[in-house]
Amino acid sequence: MTAPPLASGPQGPAALRPLLDIVLDALREGAEARGGPLPAGGPEAVAARVRDALGEPLPAEGDPEALRRLVRALAAGTADPADPLCAAHLHTPPLAVAAAADLAVSVLNPSLDSWDQAPAASALEALVTRALAEAAGAADALVTTGGTESNHLAVLLAREAHPGVRLVHGANAHHSLPRAAWLLGLPDPVAVPTPAGVLDPAALDDALTQLQGPLMVAATAGTTDAGLIDPLPEIADLCAAHGARLHIDAAYGGGLLFSDRHRARLDGLARAHTITLDLHKLGWQPVAAGLLAVRDTHDLAVLGHRADYLNADDDTEAGLPDLLGRSLRTTRRPDILKIAVTLTTLGRGGLGRLVDQVCALAQEFATAVEAHPGFELHDRPTLSTVLFRPAGAPDDTVAAVRRRLLHDGRAVIGRAVLDGRLWLKVTLLNPYARPADLTALLKLVDLAALPEGHTPG
Ligand SMILES: *Cc1c(COP(=O)(O)O)cnc(C)c1O
Fold first, then answer.
1. What's the pLDDT score for residue 452?
2. Is the predicted pLDDT of residue 132 greater than 60, yes or no?
3. pTM, full prediction
4. Where are its TM segments located (predicted)?
5. Percentages helix, strand, coil for the chain, rounded to the nearest 5?
6. How many CB atoms are closer than 10 A to CB 411?
């Protein structure tokens, strides 16, 4: 192979253009080879095809065809969230404009650990994080890799403000919250049972009354399993009455901030000390696009950190922005560019309409489930998650239906245990899925629920 060209610099664009053509062609070829929402055949078949495409992982001499071959293999073997029948998780189909912006980040490779590696990117991040924080009723926000890192930072900030703080969360909370408490050496968290799917204020009041020492409550706006929103104003009142700190995990529900129709369901959000947002869910961003918003910017002071090669005192005094305190990471990719491009290209209106569309689709899907005698609906959806199950089926049948559809490459649907039973979960994040796609999905599940070997007549 001749000398491999660089992505940026004077020759960068000319070197990239033919490579991008290869990538785009390979994406199309791979999708055609797949022919559905995910590859058929299950893990072994997929791994065998990847092994073939890869060949020797570190050959003595390279092969210029590798780009086409591997991108094609990845596309052929992907679970594509842009396919309406790929609807298991909070796994979003990214917007084309966001992916295009992300390419510029890969090319320029700014790193947000010091101003001299990211002059414009750091300025952009400062402006856009503040605007997003304000949209959530907070003062500032840090960019993270997602909800998990945001929750981790929130628990860290609580610990620094209140040494020995104990986390109190609903049983419906994301698993990353108790994990953060463990990681940060905090007392064992207390999980308040949530039999109705959301935190019950009376049960939370009891827990806060009984517990000693500094407390931090984590509420959820958009539970991962069911898309439910805890009663935020009541929880904020209780936290104020008990002197507890409040964190709201709005990784999923935070997207409602863009929607005029649905924003009011986040009332109370602004009363939290910290808020987790995650734009690789209801924000249609490529991974990663997380944020942690804070109400009081003084809370962030504890993250201040000095490394002479990155933020020497005299450099900071001379006016070079000090970026190290904006993250626990050092080298850090400007995920803010794709976010900024999306916000300014679509505007609040454009994003709000996408949010409204997925919420409306979920209502339509729930109505179709209710109207079908073969299915039981868990509840009307709050966000864009619908839980349902084949009527009268035991849990192992429900689990088998999901795996059968995965194995055959026909649909990607999720699972969730609620009320002690296993449910099928459809998380609708594709704003362009049509009612006919939802009907097709229901039909696939119906067929997959038939006993093995049964062919419908
Ligand atoms: C998805 C999710 C998270 C975790 O976010 P990642 O981006 O996967 O780290 C945290 N909390 C809730 C409520 C979520 O739905």
1. 63
2. yes
3. 0.97
4. none
5. 50, 15, 40
6. 25
Q: What's the CA gap between 340 and 360, in Å, rounded? A: 26
Of 228, 276, 291, 339, which is best to mutate to test ligand 1, by the most ligand atoms within 8 angstroms of its C-beta? 276
Mean per-residue pLDDT of the chain? 97
Cβ neighbours of residue 360 under 8 Å, at least 6 residues apart? none
| Model confidence at 367: pLDDT above 50 | yes
Q: Average of pLDDT values for 196-217?
A: 98
User: Is any atom of ligand 1 closer than 6 Å to the C-beta of 429?
Assistant: no
pLDDT at residue 457, as a whole number: 39
Q: Identify the sign of the CA torsion 161, 166, 170, 174.
A: positive
At position 15, the amino acid (one-letter code) is: A
User: From the CB of 444, is ligand 1 less than 6 Å away?
Assistant: no
Residue type, 19: L
Place of tokens 């245990």: 417
Query: Could you give the domains of the chain?
Result: 30-78 (no CATH), 99-345 (3.40.640.10), 348-448 (3.90.1150.10)
> Which of 153, 179, 224, 248 to mutate to test ligand 1, by most ligand atoms within 8 A of the CB atom?
224
DSSP secondary structure code for residue 305 in this structure: -
> What does the pLDDT average to over 81-103?
98
Cβ distance 326 to 121 under 8 Å?
A: no
Query: Which residues are registered as beta bridge partners of 86?
Result: 412
Residue 322 has pLDDT above 70, yes or no: yes
438 half-sphere exposure, CB direction, 13 A CA radius: 25
Cis peptide preceding 196, ω within 30 of 0: no
Q: How far is the CA of 359 from the centre of ligand 1 (A)?
A: 19
Cα-based distances in Å from 155 to 83, 100, 230, 330: 36, 34, 19, 20
CA angle 210, 216, 217 (to 5 degrees): 85
Q: Give every CB contact of residue 4 below 8 A, 6+ residues apart in sequence.
A: none
Greater confidence, 454 or 447? 447
Report whether 123 contacts 336 (CB < 8 A). Answer: no
For residue range 266-314, what is the model confidence (pLDDT) as tens digits?
A: 999 999 999 999 999 999 999 999 999 999 999 999 999 999 999 999 9
- pLDDT band, residue 2 (cuts 50/70/90): confident
